[in-house]
Amino acid sequence: MLRLIATSLCLRCQSAAALSLHIRPCATLIPAENQQTVEALYDLSVDIQKVRKLNSWVLHQSPAYTKEVADLLKDLGASGPVIARILTVHPEAVLCQPEQMQIQRELWMSVCPKHKELVGIIENFPASFFTSYSHHDNQRNNITFFQSLNLNKRIITKLMASAPLSFSRPVEQNEVMVRTLQQAYQELGGEEANMKIWLQKLLSQNPFVLMKPPEVLRENLLFLRDKGFSTAELLHLLSKLRGFVTELNPDTMHRSMAYSQDTIGCSEAELRHIVLNCPAVLYYPEDILAERFKGLLSIGISLSQIKETPTVLELTTQIVNYRIQRLRVHGYDVRTGSLEVLNGTKKDFEMSYGKLHLRSERPIFNPVAPLKVDD
């Protein structure tokens, strides 16, 4: 019996040893951290723990150019805390070769010559500036193209920062999309003199419009035309949608419009009027529209009020309830009054609310009442 136990223990020890020998080589496959990089980041007050948690792979790469990145940012006027924030959020910057960083600096300064502004852009969009891909020729060609459109340098800078892929691809693709936008604007009756301003506004509001296929814009405009919108109304929609018309498709627009029409119980002409005043009806899916309608109706707002002021559908139920509670303090009842006071941004609402507050506090002056005069 003892012999059997001893034999069993020996077999277990042998299998454990074999297992450890099998595992040990795998452990050595994990490369050690690049201590020069870690120490350099420590010296710059970078949050190493955060880097290890989110981008640990960067610390294992070699070569790394931490000093070169820091020197470039310092030369642009970045402070120590700013450099630390940039490298904490985007440690991949240390993998960019110094030659590429210098080319990027020259390209960006051709549209953003002020160092302070460029540092601010790098802080907010570090991945757009520190790129390891060699698309410099495409970037240069795209910058030249957008400059040829006489676009404001700030607009071009914003495009490069928020939609960098549109600058890393061949310029011909951007030329096609811009030409499609210009053609749609002109075909819908837009004035040539205003086209540059219109294009600037559209691109600044939605830089990703450049990444969409031109066919999407044509299909969506054709769908809306078939729904009875005039050319002037289509131009109004194209401008009011701020370029997000390329984010839509005929199927989703049809479902959203049909749901709104069935819920409100309006005619085709009335629906078009609602869409022109509240384009959100086109892109909110049915579940969001259902939640908005339900929330408004549950607090006593009527469908006729929503039809008259459809922009209230752009507000979440929580925002509507909060604003109604504040208005109720001053005796304003949205169930019997206009919904316009609910609309707009937080700043817009505060202005409307302030006017109501002053009105409620202002004493009523009676011109025929006798004046009280001290004897």
Q: What are the SSEs and their pairings?
A:
Elements: H1 2-27, H2 35-43, H3 48-55, H4 66-75, H5 80-89, H6 98-109, H7 115-124, H8 126-129, H9 136-148, H10 153-162, H11 165-168, H12 171-187, H13 195-205, H14 214-226, H15 231-240, H16 250-264, H17 268-277, H18 280-283, H19 286-298, H20 303-308, H21 317-329, H22 346-361
Written description of the protein model:
- The structure is a single chain.
- This protein has helices spanning 2-27, 35-43, 48-55, 66-75, 80-89, 98-109, 115-124, 126-129, 136-148, 153-162, 165-168, 171-187, 195-205, 214-226, 231-240, 250-264, 268-277, 280-283, 286-298, 303-308, 317-329, 346-361.
- It has 375 residues and is mostly helical.
- The protein is globular.
- The termini are far apart.
- Residues 1-7, 11-28, 362-366 and 371-375 have low confidence and may be disordered.
Give average pLDDT, whole number.
87
Structural class: mainly alpha
Q: Please tell me how large the radius of gyration is.
A: 31 Å
Poorly predicted tracts of residues:
1-7, 11-28, 362-366, 371-375
Compute the number of helices. Answer: 22
Q: Report the count of strand segments.
A: 0
Order of helices and strands: HHHHHHHHHHHHHHHHHHHHHH
Helicity level? 55-70%
Distance between the termini: 125 Å
